[in-house]
Design brief:
Elements lengths: L2 H22 L3 H28 L6 H14 L2 H21 L8 H6 L3 E6 L2 E6 L8 E4 L9 E3 L4 E4 L1 H4 L5 E3 L4 E2 L4 E2 L4 E5 L7 H15 L6 H24 L2 H11 L2 H20 L2 E3 L2 H9 L2 E4 L1 H5 L5 E7 L5 H12 L5 H12 L8 E6 L3 E6 L2 E6 L9 H13 L2 E7 L2 E9 L6 H10 L4 E5 L4 H11 L3 E3 L4 H12 L4 E5 L5 H6 L2 E5 L5 H6 L2 E3 L5 H36 L5 H19 L15 H16 L1 H16 L3 H37 L6 H22 L9 H28 L6
Parallel strand pairs: 11-18, 11-20, 18-19, 20-21, 21-22
Antiparallel strand pairs: 1-2, 1-3, 3-9, 4-7, 4-9, 5-6, 5-8, 10-22, 12-17, 13-14, 14-15, 15-16, 16-17
Helix pairs in contact: 1-2, 1-4, 2-3, 2-4, 3-4, 3-9, 4-10, 4-22, 8-9, 8-21, 9-21, 9-22, 10-21, 10-22, 11-21, 13-14, 16-21, 21-22, 23-25, 24-25, 24-27, 25-26, 26-27
């Protein structure tokens, strides 16, 4: 809390308390002296605040308090003045506590920016200040280093992590001659860069300038109290003036000012706002001041980045495709074994997926890694590779099908080769967050009318995410400057919130009315530029923040309007001479207590915002969520068996179907049975009854039906071990249908049920 507010609060408390002690002891003269001193002490700061507001063209709520303080001193109503001084000091102290902000000097942006570059002249490589780099210089960028200036790749290909610029988590390969932008991180081997711009004219410097400009353009927040004072102030002055004019009594006019002192505005609104800030912080939402909370409660447009905000921000295994004679789990295990020591983002995704499924990794030998091509090594005496395929490698039909699936799913393909022959493919994609759909539904319920995605990612995956989430608009392939332009355009129509997690989002966050940063894994720069930081890696905390802001603002408005209505009644009584100033001040204290107690409701939970789960139910959710990860290989086996039936419906394909039947019987169906009889009954009370899970129960019935149908087909296999032609189409349809139902069912459970648990 700033020193002035804290000192004023301490002085007014002491003056009122000591004066009360003297009054009880019968020393009324000393009591009046203490109360008068407390009033005088408050007049100076209050006049300063009023003058500051008037210089900004505002006649704020503090003007009524100044008039009341002066009036009580003029007519000798010192107790009333001391009470008003205490209320003024308390309101200012509460508001100052809510207004504490973190620095917005964008330190992280500046820290990330390189200050030197390695310039090559002939065979000599020297480190020079970045300001000395000129267009045409040949620079060397080592592994893990930041590209210092905009330029073009000179000789060897470059693999760059451009998430700082675009938010896209997958590394991008740039061939010689292609342009690259400053701020990207070298995710591969060293390469040479031909500078095409100076540091001042490069992309990253532009991001810093944009963030500074957008932050400087942010309009100051108008306090909720001041907005209501715009009509309450002239009304109060008019009533007090008319009272003096008609009655001829200055005491009556002062009594009107005393009971009109807008303590509901000075106290109730800040209390509700501070209570909302406290409530949000308990959920991992750091809101930097009361103005941000008020604006969030009025927001009608919400703009979201894609990568790291609506998606997880890092690639995960979507599917594993195996060649004939290979199993998907075998492909994933070998690929992860080769990649377990690689720092590449795709390698980490493979290893994480293998470990989630309980696969035991082998120890490769003779391992080597080539940027852009992947890792090579020997496992069990066979030479294997994981990554890209060599140029000219002939792809069998299943591999071409994998390529097609990658295009359709917007996924990246990592190939596993054995003795230079592809035997499997792993599809990876940055998946949608499980809690994203529920979050957006809750945001619309909270009053957000327009949801828009702003992303630097490609149009195809962006529009797919937008369609799944039901967004109102999707704008893809945006630069940081484009995002700022979009934010400014949206601000013209409504209070606008921008949500992001990367350095590239920092300018847009600063340009919005309210900037929200995914601070758990997002960049420090985005957190520095934001008004609100989500400290947990859950986007549903955004819906919590909006719900808290809306509720806190509603309670603040209720308290302010209710208190002012009571004050208006008291003003009428004071104007008629029924309330002397001291009694009016005490009555105003009673009104204050009522509105403050109402404002403190913002500390409590909004029961309708988030279902409350019992600890035992949360444990069940975590258990079944872990089983979903473990069952991914079963889904892959179902799809692989269907593919084999399509390619060559022989004994090998039939063996794959029998393996699927075993996996269904031993692992999948027991899981579904346990969900039906343990998880769903536990969720029913929270979700409003068994009808809430009825649709999902119907999916269990369909899964069981298809599994039983597959088992029946196996019993109808002929004596020669082959399927009748009329069986093939139905069995294949059962397998593909089961795979589709399982994918949809798993996704629905993860979005609707598993996302409820913290």
């Amino acid at each position: 809390m700033p020193p002035l507010e804290s000192l004023l609060l301490a002085d007014t408390v002491v003056a009122l308390t000591v004066g009360g002690v003297f009054w009880l002891a019968g020393a009324t003269g000393l009591a009046d002296l203490c109360w008068a001193l407390g009033t005088v002490v408050a007049v100076g700061p209050a006049v300063g605040w009023v003058l500051g507001a008037l210089r900004r063209g505002q006649a704020g709520v503090d003007l009524i308090a100044v008039l009341a303080l002066g009036g009580t001193l003029a007519v000798g109503e010192y107790l009333a003045g001391s009470l008003i001084a205490l209320m003024l000091a308390t309101g200012r102290a509460l508001e100052a506590s809510a207004r504490q902000r973190a620095s917005r000097d964008l330190r992280a942006l500046l820290e990330h920016a390189p200050r030197t570059a390695r310039r090559r002249t002939g065979t000599d490589v020297r480190t020079v200040p970045l300001t000395e780099v000129a267009v045409g210089d040949l620079l060397v960028v080592g592994p893990g280093e930041v590209v210092p200036v905009d330029g073009s790749v000179a000789d060897d290909p470059a693999e760059l992590d451009e998430s700082v610029l675009t938010g896209e988590p997958l590394a991008v390969r740039h061939a010689p001659g292609e342009s690259v932008r400053s701020g990207a991180v070298n995710a591969g081997g060293a390469f040479e860069l031909r500078a095409t711009a100076t540091a001042q004219d490069s992309t990253y410097a532009g991001i810093v300038r944009l963030a500074r400009q957008a932050s400087a353009e942010s309009a100051p927040v108008v306090r909720l109290a001041d907005r209501y004072a715009a009509w309450f102030l002239p009304l109060t002055v008019a009533v007090a003036g008319l009272t003096w004019l008609i009655s001829g009594s200055a005491v009556r006019a002062v009594a009107v000012l005393v009971v009109a002192t807008p303590c509901p505005l000075l106290l109730a609104a800040p209390v509700a706002v501070v209570s909302g800030l406290s409530r949000a912080s308990r959920l991992g939402v750091v809101i930097r001041d009361g103005g941000a909370l008020e604006n969030l409660g009025r927001a009608r447009t919400l703009l979201l980045d894609k990568t790291g905000t609506l998606t997880g921000g890092h690639p995960r295994v979507l599917d594993v495709i195996a060649a004939h004679g290979w199993q998907p789990s075998q492909v994933l295990r070998l690929a992860a074994s080769l990649d377990q020591y690689s720092p590449h983002v795709l390698a980490r995704a493979l290893v994480d997926a293998a470990r989630e499924r309980g696969l035991r990794l082998s120890m490769p030998t003779d391992v080597s890694e080539e940027p852009g091509r992947g890792a090579r090594g020997t496992i069990a005496g066979r030479r294997m590779g994981v990554g890209g395929l060599d140029a000219g490698t002939e792809k069998p039909a299943w591999a071409r099908s994998a390529d097609n699936r990658a295009v359709l799913d917007g996924a990246t393909v990592v190939w596993l080769t054995v003795d230079s022959r592809p035997v499997g493919a792993v599809l990876l994609r940055d998946p949608l967050r499980h809690d994203a759909p529920r979050t957006l539904r809750r945001l619309r319920s909270a009053g957000i009318e327009r949801l828009v995605m702003l992303t630097g990612d490609r149009a195809e995956p962006a529009h797919e995410v937008g369609a799944v989430l039901g967004l109102d608009d999707v704008r893809a392939s945006l630069s940081p400057a484009d995002k700022v332009t979009a934010v400014r355009a949206e601000r013209e129509g409504a209070v606008t919130v921008m949500v992001g997690d990367g350095v590239n989002d920092a300018p847009a966050l600063a340009a919005a009315d309210v900037g929200v940063a995914m601070g758990s894994r997002g960049s420090t720069a985005s957190s520095e530029a934001a008004d609100i930081v989500l400290t947990t890696d859950r986007v549903d905390r955004l819906a919590d923040a909006v719900a808290i802001a809306v509720r806190s603002r509603r309670i603040a408005v209720q308290s302010a309007l209710g208190g002012m209505a009571l004050s208006l009644i008291a003003m009428a009584a004071a104007a008629l001479g029924l309330l002397p100033p001291a009694v009016g001040a005490l009555l105003q204290e009673g009104i204050d207590v009522a509105v403050i107690l109402n404002a403190l409701r913002a500390l409590g939970d909004d029961r309708g915002a988030r279902p409350a789960l019992q600890p035992s139910t949360q444990a069940l959710i975590h258990r079944f969520a872990a089983e979903h990860d473990d069952l991914q290989d079963v889904l892959e086996a179902v799809r692989s068996a269907a593919d084999q039936l399509s390619d060559s419906p022989g004994p090998q394909a039939l063996a794959a179907v029998r393996n699927v039947h075993r996996l269904l019987t031993e692992r999948l169906l027991p899981h579904e049975y346990a969900e039906e009889h343990q998880l769903y009954p536990a969720l029913a009370p929270t979700l409003g009854g068994p009808e809430a899970t009825a649709t999902m129960s119907r999916a269990h019935v369909e899964i069981d039906r298809l599994a039983h149908r597959i088992a029946t087909h196996l019993t109808l296999v002929g004596p020669d071990g082959s399927l009748a032609p009329e069986q093939l189409d139905d069995l294949r349809a059962c397998l593909y249908g089961l795979h589709t139902v399982l994918r949809l069912h798993f996704t629905q459970e993860e979005e609707n049920y598993f996302s409820l648990a913290p």
